[in-house]
């Protein structure tokens, strides 16, 4: 059994940003030499998410708007008593989940026809990690 | 370490359909001969979900209604500019997540008392895969 | 390849309760002797969740309030025709997901700076299991 871990760092320019990391993950898989197994893609921050979905700009805007509707920015989250202003980012992270697992088959990430992996930053402009 | 992959295909009759795949997964586990480990059940489509919950018809209707409330069909999703009409199905998929992992202990799927695995189709009447 | 399974039991005092199980998981990892791999933390009940997020009391109250807004208690869930009263707990469980995977690196749970694991009970005052 072989394990390979790599950490990625993101420093987004916008507060909320959705980054397609599929080709990065393909490179990591190649480097690892793993042929069968699973790749865990897991955000290391509690205000970020990871999902598998379509790479389509309109859809990304729909998702962003939808997340803001279901888990809106609000001044009066209790969490803000700590001095933070990112209560909504925690809720958005819970909503989309912070990790996915990609099956590896014959040395390839075993995706369906349109599956792409996104790192979703909900509280950006800080340095953030992913393993 | 042993790996075993199987692909399932669904061709649903309705737009939204929830299929209990627990017994299918039990058969696959038997075929694989794996005694300890994990089974990843992951939708290969970006308009489908996989969840673990109760097998109760009323609850399935409640879930369907709830998903339609939180991620409703709308004409004006930006994603529809591509000619698609399934924006809501993408959002529903993000909401329930597209995969689960089932622990395997002593050659059995290690479920709690009421846990059943569902494949949730949110944009059906097309052929869809699951690995 | 080494596998180690442990079951935890919770008997909460309140209907909804959020229990930080991070230190318990650290003890289990130590006992297991596993140095590289993944730890699956998966609720065995269909009215419970498991998530990774911040250990901050205000935030936990925000999350609780938010979940009650998105998946409220209602008298008229169809699931209640079975005699149950926990329809909302099933929906809350779907919303936050019932499991997480924690990467294990160098014999440690490989968390980001603020990541803590919570067991979320949505239908408490019964004995519940986690594997």
UniProtKB/TrEMBL annotation, chains A, B, C:
SUPFAM superfamilies: YjbQ-like (SSF111038)
Protein name per UniProt: Secondary thiamine-phosphate synthase enzyme
Pfam families: YjbQ
PANTHER family in the record: UNCHARACTERIZED PROTEIN YJBQ-RELATED, YJBQ FAMILY PROTEIN
UniProt xrefs under InterPro entries: UPF0047_YjbQ-like (IPR001602), YjbQ-like_sf (IPR035917)
NCBIfam families, A to Z: TIGR00149_YjbQ (TIGR00149)
Organism: Thermotomaculum hydrothermale
